[in-house]
Each structure stands twice: as structure tokens, then as C-alpha cells.
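Forgive a beginner's question, but would it be possible to get a protein, spelled out as residues, together with the matching C-alpha cells, please?
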Amino acid sequence: MTHQIALQFEDGVTRFIDAKATETVADAAYRQGVNLPLDCRDGACGTCKCFAESGRYQMGEYIDDALSEAEARDGFVLTCQMRAQSDCVVRVPASSAVCRTQQASFDAAISRVEQLSPSTISLSLRGEALNKLAFLPGQYVNLQVPGSTATRAYSFSSLPRDGEVSFLIRNVPGGLMSSFLTQLAKAGDAMTLTGPLGSFYLRDIKRPLLLLAGGTGLAPFTAMLEKIAEQGTPHPVHLIYGVTHDADLVEMDKLEAFAARIPGFTFTACVASADSAWPKKGYVTQHLEPTHLHDGEVDIYLCGPPPMVEAVSQFIRERGLQPANFFYEKFAASA
């Protein structure tokens, strides 16, 4: 039996490998061309110490000087002694370059491009190569703008299905990618993806979740919600989705479908414009209720522009709240 191991390097590159239950993660990585830091292979030096963020595994023999009892309790592992018993996510305290692994590139073609609103474009790509694409829900890739060497970073808005992935892209007037998608793009046009990248992704769900999205920052959450719908969770999940204008609200039917599929999932959408006809007005922070915060026993995920990240951080500080985890991804549009 084999399990999928996501190796998350400190420079943001993620590499997926398959590991047999009978082999160590270090051996599995080496077999697939990833040279994890390693000296002794005997659990004696500690060179291969990493952090197992999620998954089940067994450890072989090692000495306390290489991995203390407290470190083992906290989730640290020696990859030369770690044997996976399920899919795992392992944080590697080294860059991908040091481990001699490069970002993977995938060739695909546009299957669908649609302007959902004046501010948002939906892009779907399909290709045989994408059947080999793996990523953690919430991560992003760099998309090369056809006809140039420039790339733009976009979060996946869906899980891969039959060689197809999707993105929500902010329509930036005069933007290089936006101009291509709104003026030139057509089905069949070739595009190249490089990645996956990023440390913003869905962790094992151990407590209630609060998801905060600003504009096209909704994208990683629809991918996360697909995963949650597949695996289920006994914990409540609440999403607050904020936009500037009524026309900016997109994918509402998708959120309604998730609410029907996922027990315990609820969402709120709000519009900041004073001229809005939407029933819930204001910013995301104005719709954060004490029940969403669970007295700090909550994992908060936030994806939005820098001012939104700062506003939420200030909101948390002012209330003396210490969430169990606070993961966030800032994004800014490229002109």
C-alpha cells in the first residue's frame, strides 16, 4: 500500500511523493529524486528532522540526541525513521533548491473562460498533464501569460477533476493577464502552470473553522470546501465573504450548494458599498460574531488584500483573542 506525502519546503514549493508503508519517507523521497537533508540514516544525527503537520505514521529507532521525547510529542519526525500509515503533510526546514527539487511545470489549455462580474473572471484549464497535478487545497500556482514570459499567481478555486482545474481571477483594468483573458483568450489556447506553491492550505480539522474571504480571495476557500465536502468534519465551519459592490458577489450558488452538502457549514456575504442593496452591508469584521470565534478555540483562515488582513488582525488584538491558529494569505493585483 502506498500513501501520498506532501513535502512543504521553506521556500513555498510543495512536492508530492508516494511512499510505501514499508519504506521510510527519506528513502521514498530519494527514490523519486528529492534529496531530503540526510547524514546517518540511523536515527542518530537529527539532520533529517522535519515536522509532520498531518497524517499517521510510525517511527523506527532513534536516539534522544536526534529527536527528544518532547519533540516527538509535538509532531517532529526523523524522515529516515518515519513510515507513513496514511497520507501526510511534512514541513521540511530547507529550500527546495537545497533538496535538488524544482517547481513542477504543467502544460494545459483553456477549457472555459467566463467573466462572472466586472471584477471577477473564472478560468478553467484542462490537460492530460493535469492528471498528475497534486496540491493542498488553498495553494496557488504561477500561470504564464500567453505571448509573454510574465507570470501571475492564482489560487486554485477547485480540486483537480478529470484533468481540469479552475481559478477565480480579479479583473484588473490594463492588467496583463486580465487583458488577455477579456480580449484574446479562447478555448484551446495553451497555458503553462508552475507549482504548487504556498503555505496557505487546509490543515487537519481539529476544531471549528472560521474562513474569511475578500473578493477573489474566495478562490482557495471553494477548493477547501470541496475537500471538506469529500472528507466530512464534525466541527462547524463558517465563511464570511466580503466584496466592495453588489456586482462583485460571485459563486453564491456554489456556496449554497456547499451549505446543503456539508453539515455544520454556514456562510455570510457582505458588501462594503454604502449604495449596496444587499441585506448585509459593511466589512467582514462587522459581521464577526462571538459565536464564530468560539472563545479562541478556532482555526482562522483569511485570504484577502493587505488592508483586510490588517483589519482582521487588529480586530483580534483589540478583543484580546488568541485563536488556536491564524493562517492568512495576502494578495495584491499586478497592473
User: Anything to note?
Assistant: Residues 219-231 form the longest helix (13 residues). The mean pLDDT is 93. The domain at 2-92 is CATH 3.10.20.30 (Ubiquitin-like (UB roll)). The longest strand covers residues 104-117.
